[in-house]
Amino acid sequence: MPAHPAPASTFDAVIVGAGVGGLYALYRLRKLGLKLRVFEAGGDVGGTWYWNRYPGCRCDVESLEYSYSLSDELQQDWHWPERYGTQPEILRCINHVADRFDLRRDIEFNTRVKEAVFDGNTNTWTVTTDTGRVVSARFCIMATGNLSTPRTPGYPGLERFRGKWYHTGLWPHDGVDFTGLRVGVIGTGSSGVQSIPIIARQARHLYVFQRTANFSLPARNAAMDPAKERTHKAEYPARRRAAFDTPFGIAGYPPPVKSALEASDEERRRIYETKWAEGGSISFLYSFTDLLVNKEANDTASGFVRQKIRATVKDPKTAELLCPSDHPIGTKRLILDTEYYETYNRDNVTLVDIRSKPITEFTVTGLRTTDADYELDAIVFATGFDAMTGAMKEIDIHTDAGQSIEEKWRYGPRTYLGIMVAGFPNLFMITGPQSPGVKSQMILACEQHVDWIADCLQHLREHGLVRIEAEPEAEDAWVRHNNEVADRTLYPLANSWYVGANIPGKPRVFMPYVGGVTAYKKKCDEVAARGYEGFRLVAGGEMHRFAAQ
Ligand code: NAP
After folding, report:
1. CB contact burial 185-207 (16+ within 10 A = b; e otherwise)
2. Which of 77, 228, 394, 455 could serve as a FRET partner for 64 with CA atoms 20 to 30 Å apart?
3. Spans of all domains in the chain
4. Which ligand 1 atom is the nearest neighbour of the CA of 354?
5. Which ligand 1 atom sits closest to the C-alpha of 61?
6. Ligand 1 centroid, distance to 407 Cα (angstroms)
């Protein structure tokens, strides 16, 4: 009996995931005439925006930016009702894209990829799903997302808890009504901070269990300004191009010109006040040139936000607990909120410090910390994800040469450009580790990767090549470069998911590329222009060509 049943179908490429990246890959690679199949674990398209349906979920990048640029007609037609898109609105747009471009016919939903094995003789991947599908493809494209593997803490006793519990990243589709309930939210990252003000308005009492305070800025969300929308739409193509000439892949924010340390106290205060009133994280981090590279400069911005927290939160003890003190502002994902700090002035909200008095277990009626029992009807885990590597490692990806991704990344991810991994031919990642993905506008990042991959496949086809593989030396140099760039910034000072700090036992390696979108895209373009420098390309006989040739 063979270990795997013979593949029932053969494709040019299998795409894993029908989120923003996977859908665009399907759209773009179809234009090359390839035979494609997408497997998606969820019941529909959307990825992140399909799963994260918690109250208050919305994007922290402005809606006119956080949108596909794949069709000018689409971006002209689509109307974003607010400055920042809500989860339902973004999902509606993604569904519209899937329908408008007839993408669903190549997607198998409710189908989770369990295994992908490369055969070096035929240069093909065999992909097995939890529905028993076994297919083969010349190329495998992992559009599995960076924040798609939700994690709940391992405290004992959750199975005893008689109330209901939820994870923000796996929220029930028909919503949750917390009216009249005693609710506990564990976690104060972006998901917690967005949901807490809304849950507080419904709950009888809300306990927020905070381990680490985070910096949050006001989003200043508002209805879309029609004049702004008109101007933006008139300039869309130019703005999309300009976005690649910015560090975070978002145009429209004038770059800073001076160090925070060159400004007087009064000038600094004036600038921070303006940015605070404007809302938005990039705008705030663009106050000065050196907020992310110089601790002393950063202290001025961190101190400003701490003062704002103290001025907002009436109870001084609660205010102090909410003031972040263990990391420079911006070195963890800077949060945007709507009335987060104000929520702690409500009588029905209690902040519980689980840094000094940790949770020890869940009980039948709630949870226990080292000094108290909390009676709860519902618990919300806003505890984040096994970020950046989790989804790839959940799939058993290996080659007939005996290498596995699990083993290869044991001490942290290693990639070339965040697109390929040495030892794993014909396997592409969309916004993989060591690419700027999560440190940039994600849709732009996905589009840039997919376009690069599409051009690469076109090149392979035109040159009769059947195999592409990152060279180990190129990968080593890229990993080294990533570390050097990160070490020139303050980012590694934070215990963030960027370094895997939220997952016990995960190797502490700084995972995103923080050299900026401009430098990164230039490097990707140069690599391609030089005939895929750093990659080994292999020609094949007629029988090995991909099906669409
Ligand atoms: P997160 O940023 O990783 O935050 C998780 C929170 O849970 C942290 O406060 C963490 O505390 C806490 N936590 C984790 N394990 C815990 C444990 N065992 N006991 C107690 N507390 C624990 O996760 P997230 O809020 O879901 O956000 C993840 C990322 O998704 C964001 O950074 C952002 O990139 C993206 N996101 C974006 C938006 C948006 O666009 N607006 C919204 C939501 C999410 P510690 O800090 O002490 O580990």
Report:
1. bbbbbbbbbbbbbbbbbbbebbb
2. 455
3. 9-149+387-545
4. 20
5. 40
6. 26
Helices and strands counted in the chain (H then E):
17, 22
Predicted TM-score (pTM) above 0.85? yes
Give 78-129 pLDDT, tens digit per residue: 999 999 999 999 999 999 999 999 999 999 999 999 999 999 999 999 999 9
Q: Give the number of the atom of ligand 1 that is nearest the alpha carbon of residue 58.
A: 41
- Indicate the average pLDDT of the chain: 96
Rounded Cα gap, residues 175 and 163, in angstroms: 16
Q: Span 167-195, mean pLDDT? A: 98
Which residue's alpha carbon is at the smallest distance from atom 46 of ligand 1? Answer: 212
Instruction: For the domain made up of 9-149+387-545, give the CATH fold.
Output: FAD/NAD(P)-binding domain (3.50.50)
Residue of 158, 191, 221 best suited for mutating to test ligand 1, as the one with most atoms within 8 Å of CB: 191
Q: Locate 162 and state its tokens.
A: 């008689």
Q: Which residue has the tokens 């003890």?
A: 317
Identify the pLDDT of residue 540. 82
Instruction: Answer yes or no: is pLDDT of 197 > 80.
Output: yes
Task: Indicate whether 511 pLDDT > 80.
Answer: yes
Q: pLDDT tens across 132-145, in order?
A: 999 999 999 999 99
Does 450 score more than 60 pLDDT? Answer: yes
* Mutation test residue for ligand 1: of 333, 381, 503, the one with most atoms within 8 Å of CB: 333
Lining residues, ligand 1, CB within 6 Å: 58-60, 147, 153, 168, 186-192, 194, 211-212, 333, 354, 382-385, 497, 502
Q: Which amino acid is at 56?
A: G
pLDDT of residue 543: 45
Task: Give, for 9, the enclosing helix (H) or strand (E).
Answer: strand 9-16
